[in-house]
Amino acid sequence: MQLSDFYYDLPPELIAQDPIQDRSSSKLMVLNKENGQIEHRYFKDIMEYLNEGDCLVINNTKVIPARLIGEKEDTKAQIELLLLKRKEDDVWETLVKPGKKARVGARIVFGNGLLVGEIIDVLEDGNRLVHFEYKGIFEEILDQLGEMPLPPYITHKLEDKERYQTVYAKHDGSAAAPTAGLHFTNELLEELKKKGIKIAQVTLHVGLGTFRPVKVDNILEHHMHSEYYSLSKEDADIINQAKANHKRVIAVGTTSTRTLETIGDEDGKVREASGWTDIFIYPGYSFKVVDALITNFHLPESTLLMLVSALADREKILNAYNEAIKNQYRFFSFGDAMFIQ
Fold first, then answer.
1. Most-buried pick from 228, 232, 240, 307 (CB within 10 A)?
2. Using one digit for the tens of pLDDT, what is the confidence trace for 138-147?
3. Please, are residues 332 and 304 in contact by the beta-carbon 8 Å criterion?
4. DSSP letters of 108-157?
5. How far is residue 223 CA from its own chain's centroid?
């Protein structure tokens, strides 16, 4: 299976640069994965497509303001640092630009000394391990100094940090938002509950590997990034109950999908679990847990586009994407949504 099989041509003006005012007023494309039929709706209409007893699985990870701008202690050269993964209490795996100025021993000062990072190792992939020094609580300092790590295709400044969080974000740890969840409001979630839709939560901390381009022609040679996940017994029981009642498990986003498919057994049951997943889902994959998916529109030739093509068939997905382009849908993180049922 070739990388070029997942290419489509997107006009740059359809890349959403800003979140819309009302989260649930984004467009919603509804795609029937069996026959390829398409409907054009608004996200708040999702109510009409979910039935009593269906289980919606949301990812409650919270994006940390992981982008830090500082300067080298000795030369005052500007350095940008992106927090990727906490390794120990004050040691983080980071992406540093420009890398050539970030050798082992280099010290970077942020916020006039509120936070100081020292590079203690250079990893194989070029990422740096940084040990931080500070007084007080790291998360509070990060909230004060850090910026949201928006994807590279978003060039506008985000005025309100909360718009890159879901309304149910709870557990700090992501370097990117689980963007399918950005369309939900608290009011919509309450309406869904009143209709008898069950809501289960997983946590998967989204890494920047999500945006890393696939660089091999044969996608089977692609090495997937790993991300931390967890699922509680209480939430596993909600999901298993829906399965037992022959109701649908509907993942909100590719992150929830990857978590469920990592944990699920051959009978489609899940259990309390936590760990790291590097599951790579592409056409030919047989889904064990997920029956339907709420998702955004993904980058050409991305692993996320491959995942949705596994659920609904590559040709149906590419046809739907072409329809979305014709109908001026907004693409990527702050863009419109798709419901694959």
1. 307
2. 999 999 999 9
3. no
4. EEEGGGTEEEEEEEE-TTS-EEEEEEESS-HHHHHHHH-B----TT--SP
5. 18
Among 50, 74, 296, smallest CA distance to 188 is for: 50
pLDDT bracket for residue 210 (50, 70, 90): confident
Find out whether 152 and 80 touch, Cβ atoms under 8 Å. no
Q: How far apart are CA 157 and CA 150, in angstroms?
A: 9
Give the C-alpha separation, 177 to 208, whole Å.
Answer: 10
CA distances from 302 to 114, 192, 221, 256, 306 (A): 38, 31, 14, 17, 7
Asked whether the bond before 12 is cis by omega within 30 degrees of 0, the reply is: no
Q: Across-strand partners of 57?
A: 200, 251
Spatial contact of 145 and 114, defined as CB atoms under 8 Å apart: yes
Count CB neighbours of 18 within 10 A. Answer: 13
Structure confidence by residue, pLDDT tens digits, 28-62: 999 999 999 999 999 999 999 999 999 999 999 99
Encode pLDDT of 166-178 as tens digits. 999 999 999 899 9
Token pair listed for 190:
């309450």
- Place 124 in a pLDDT band, splitting at 50, 70 and 90: confident
- Whether residue 174 contacts residue 142, with contact meaning beta carbons closer than 8 Å, is answered with no
Confidence tier at 27 by pLDDT (50, 70, 90): very high
Q: Is the pLDDT of residue 208 over 80?
A: no
pLDDT, residue 152, reads 86
Give me the phi and psi of 124, to 5 degrees please: -55, -40
Cα four-point dihedral sign 286, 288, 293, 298: negative
